[in-house]
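Data availability (excerpt). The following record was deposited with the supplementary files.
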Amino acid sequence: MPIIEVDHVTKEYRLGALQGLKQTLLNAGARLAGKMVVEPPLFKALDDVSFSIEPGEVVGIIGHNGAGKSTLLKMLAKISTPTRGSIRVDGRIAPLIEVGAGFVPDFTGRENVYLNGAILGLSKKEIDRKFDEIVEFAEMAEFIDTPVKRYSSGMQVKLAFSVATSIEAEILIVDEVLAVGDLAFQRKCFDRMEDLIKRQQRTVLLVSHNIRQVERLCSRVILLDHGRVAADGVSSTVCDLFYSQNDEKVRLNASRSASAETTGEVELIDLAFVDSAGDPLENIEYHSDVTLNVTLRTHQTLVNPIFGFGIHTVDFLYLSTEISETQFSGQVHAPGIYVLRFAIRKFPFLPGVYSVRLGINTGEVTKNVFYQEGLHHFQVVATGRNRTQSMQEGFVEMQGDWMFGKIHTEMAAGVHALN
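Predicted structure:
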């Protein structure tokens, strides 16, 4: 029997500013008088959403900003109610939504642990029993009797996360709270979530924009799009669909940077990837041979030109750089229009959206005359390849061969296990 059932749920909000009592009464009077009253439009944060979740399932909920993810979780946690439809939850819920929202700044950390625990449904006896564990996990023993208003935001969230995850509930609802504190504490949060999921067999609903994290933790994923269920199924399949949709949006919305570092000596006319026939490529097939074509107009003589070309992600993580070094050393090029080509064998980057940067140096004493990032956004595709599996572990695939065999008895004596 499902532990959670969501049946044709719709949640509507009235757009625009809230009306005061006076305006509400005036509108009511106008309606009684037969006059037309123009109401602000309704917005459907959720639109006829239905699904069920079995005990012990770990379900990810993903989608773009405004897709309805947090709205859905708040209704499951009974923070808000549906406009239409029904929700049935069979079990105690521990909601990790906006952790720390109930903290009182003038109270100490200790007082807020008891207050926040009570808000989340813990009895004083339960908090007493768990108090030392909560403080130890949050790494807050030194500051537990200090007023919370003197805590950093990270300290508050760490303590709140520790309280929230101490609840012994059948259902855990998590909304973007795993990235709290420093990197070491984030690792602790992730390990605790894995413990709750794998060892304690909790039913978990997880909302996160970290799709790799969702695919690792969840066996099933629901994709929301403008308040509706766009897909519901195996995590790798649904995450792959979301990646593909997101890649297409990034590629279509991306444009060339508005400014460049340039002396005006070189003007970029065109930049594109082309195939073996010289035709521009809209997408690059993984491991195919491609050529970068750059058309330039030089307004002054180029002496000893050095060209640099690189690939980076759309959030400017540098992945590779190739520099011509001394290949054109000793060359002098008069003003005119030129084509620069860089042939790439077996394009190495896994499916995703990437961008190009270009730099040009020239002169007897080298100086930079052109540099720009985000010049050309392009998409790498791979027929029959799962996007989430490829992007889960990095950006490139190492080409190698696996071997596995038994060690001979006489050799085994010299082999020591790794500590």
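Summary of structural features: The two ends are 46 Å apart (CA to CA).
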